[in-house]
């Protein structure tokens, strides 16, 4: 259905995220008829562009990132775009230009901050001081919110001074992914799974987010961040909350997020002295990716001193509550791994040994997030003929994003949720802070540690230490060859 008309103001309008994700997502929703023609998308950035020049860049970006773009629809879409050259962090900048463009207070206004997070507080203050924040304004904050617990708190406080929490939309695009949302349906609409979703039945859980890409020219950002901040603190911990949370009383934003934050608060702090047994960091050295030779991280980065930034993390988390105590949640994410793959594996405990021969494994539910979202839960059945040899009857279901109402990209649904004012799939302040509270001691320990990340060859599943971490408990990563 069509949303009410709006003004979408993007700070960081010439940046990579805007071109690669935000404009293509808004375009697709427009092409699907969900965005009214009189909506406006206002780009702001420091570059001295005009409407025409920004539209030209947008046209190019749509050409690159939307494969079925229709040129007459593109023309109509581009007509909605305006550009104001403005440094949002500068109170003395040309705010009048933006103010005169935003002349309709009765429209929903979304301010999307896709700039360096250090500017969020200043931009929020300026929006308020310049009278641009209306009753129905929302502010969307891209990750990362801070770089550790203290800085995250500061960002939240600074923005919170000018925008009430229910108008702050912290985006984590993994929550916009079809298969991630599906975890909620799978868990709570299937009594069979719901009853087996605990320490009695689950042996362990794995969440993998593997990428083949390396730095992609983002070295400036990435080297100061690393895989723990870039992927684990947000995307993977968000997935973990959805897998592990208790049944919410409803699907309302706060009901859902109350349960998610409880999971984060129940994460067992990683033991300082024994961090090495629960957390592995890696960095790729030269190898092959997609059949091509690729350089080591440090060569790609081309810095002066060798960098200790991790491009891979594998860790073992535990949730200290009645449902999950003792069940390992293994998370891993890395760049330059063998393939692009995001998946959640719930390994159920093996049956009593003996009947079908020893060592018969338990079932495993696989939720594939990407590519090709799907859910697979094999049932063991008897192989036809004599005897009781078992085989897997594959019960799997494709989660087809191409179906009516589906999204090709996670940002599509989320961008419109912000217009509609529904924060259910956005991250609340206490969630971000709880996630940082758990992750920050790892960062601190690494900083104290004289060693660095373990090397792994590009195109492999990370350092051997990641495999050993699971082997010690008699477990193995689902993909690891
Ligand atoms: C971003 C990270 O948040 O997520 C990137 O900053 C990463 O480094 C990306 O590549 C992965 O997203 P997706 O949707 O491709 O899994």
Keywords:
481 residues, alpha/beta, nine-stranded mixed beta sheet, 35% helix
Task: Tell me what the structure shows.
The structure is a single chain. Helix 5 runs parallel beside helix 6 (149-160). This protein is α/β, with parallel strands linked by helices. The protein has 16 helices and 19 strands. It has helices at 16-31, 51-65, 71-78, 95-101, 120-129, 149-160, 178-189, 191-196, 219-222, 227-244, 253-265, 275-278, 297-301, 410-420, 429-448, 464-471, and strands spanning 6-11, 40-45, 81-85, 108-113, 137-141, 168-170, 202-210, 279-285, 287-289, 292-294, 312-318, 328-334, 341-348, 364-370, 374-376, 379-382, 390-393, 396-398, 454-457. Strand 1, helix 1 (16-31) and strand 2 (40-45) form a beta-alpha-beta unit. A nine-stranded mixed beta sheet has the order 18-15-14-13-7-12-11-8-19, sandwiched between helices. Strands 3-2-1-4-5-6 form a six-stranded parallel beta sheet, sandwiched between helices. Bound molecules: 6-O-phosphono-beta-D-glucopyranose. 6-O-phosphono-beta-D-glucopyranose is lined by residues 173, 211, 230, 342.
Read across the widest sheet, the strand sequence of neighbours is 18-15-14-13-7-12-11-8-19
Low-pLDDT runs of 5+ residues are none
Alpha plus pi helix count: 16
* Distinct small molecules: 6-O-phosphono-beta-D-glucopyranose
Largest sheet, described in full? 9 strands, mixed
The amount of beta strand, in percent, is 15-25%
Round the mean pLDDT to the nearest integer and report it. Answer: 94
By DSSP, the count of extended strands is 19
Measured between the Cα atoms of the first and last residue, the distance is: 45 Å
Q: What best-fitting shape do the alpha-carbon axes yield? A: globular
- Alpha-beta classification: alpha/beta
Estimate the helix proportion, in percent. Answer: 25-40%
Keywords: Carbohydrate metabolism, Glucose metabolism, NADP, Oxidoreductase
Binding site for NADP(+): 46, 143
Pathway: Carbohydrate degradation; pentose phosphate pathway; D-ribulose 5-phosphate from D-glucose 6-phosphate (oxidative stage): step 1/3
Function: Catalyzes the oxidation of glucose 6-phosphate to 6-phosphogluconolactone.
